[in-house]
Amino acid sequence: MTKPTVLVFDVNETLLDIAALEPLFLRLFGDGAVLREWFAQLVVYAQAATLAGRYAPFGALGAGVLRMVGETHGVPVAEADVAELKDRTLGMPAHPDVLPALERLRGAGFRLVTLTNSAPDPDASPLERTGIARLVERQFSVDPVRRFKPAPEVYLQVSEALALPSDAFCLVAAHAWDTLGAQGLGWSGALVARPGNAALCVPGLPLPDVAAPDLSALADAMIRLWR
């Protein structure tokens, strides 16, 4: 297997901790676990929009899905709740293991970039605020191609922009659907199995090339394997 030289990091949940949104769901629904329901539905409807040939920014989808989940739970969602969701999303912190792991990976000679479903915000950048931006050379979003991961066009924009073959890339994500999409184009896949996430073991579908329960252990494994 060719050793990848560029690590492409998913952002939401992989680098940034979505648990920061939980107080909103606890207040609205009396159960912080509804956060996971909302996030899973957000991913489903982002992918459904792509399959239907439609596009709306991830933040707008997130607001719409919050209202939809509120309706299914019989909980009214006000504009102030939607505004709080946006504020909390922009304020999500990096997981504690992120900055040390990125430092080690960059020091080991990997090139680091990010690739997110979220559209760029000209007024607020969570990656700048958390210190992640200084460790990556490029930040990619689905917004230019107007399709959500795991659509092939999303990953292809990265390989085209960096002018490298597919086997030069490894997608690092907390979600098996994301690594699966990248592996379908010949990329490697690395899974950081954050709480609530795991590898998908199905005959005929590729497992991640490397997996670990946190980014520190995943960085160690990638350095051993590819450096």
From TrEMBL:
InterPro entries: 2-HAD (IPR006328), HAD-like_sf (IPR036412), HAD-SF_hydro_IA (IPR006439), HAD_sf (IPR023214), PGP-like_dom2 (IPR023198), S-2-haloacid_dehalogenase (IPR051540). NCBIfam families: HAD-SF-IA-v2 (TIGR01493), HAD_type_II (TIGR01428). Belongs to the HAD-like hydrolase superfamily. S-2-haloalkanoic acid dehalogenase family. The keyword Metal-binding does not apply. This is (S)-2-haloacid dehalogenase. Its EC number is 3.8.1.2. It is an enzyme of class 3 (hydrolase). Pfam families: Hydrolase. Keywords: Hydrolase. It catalyses: an (S)-2-haloacid + H2O = a (2R)-2-hydroxycarboxylate + a halide anion + H(+). One of its GO terms (molecular function) is (S)-2-haloacid dehalogenase activity. Catalyzes the hydrolytic dehalogenation of small (S)-2-haloalkanoic acids to yield the corresponding (R)-2-hydroxyalkanoic acids. Transmembrane segments: none annotated. Coiled coil: none annotated.
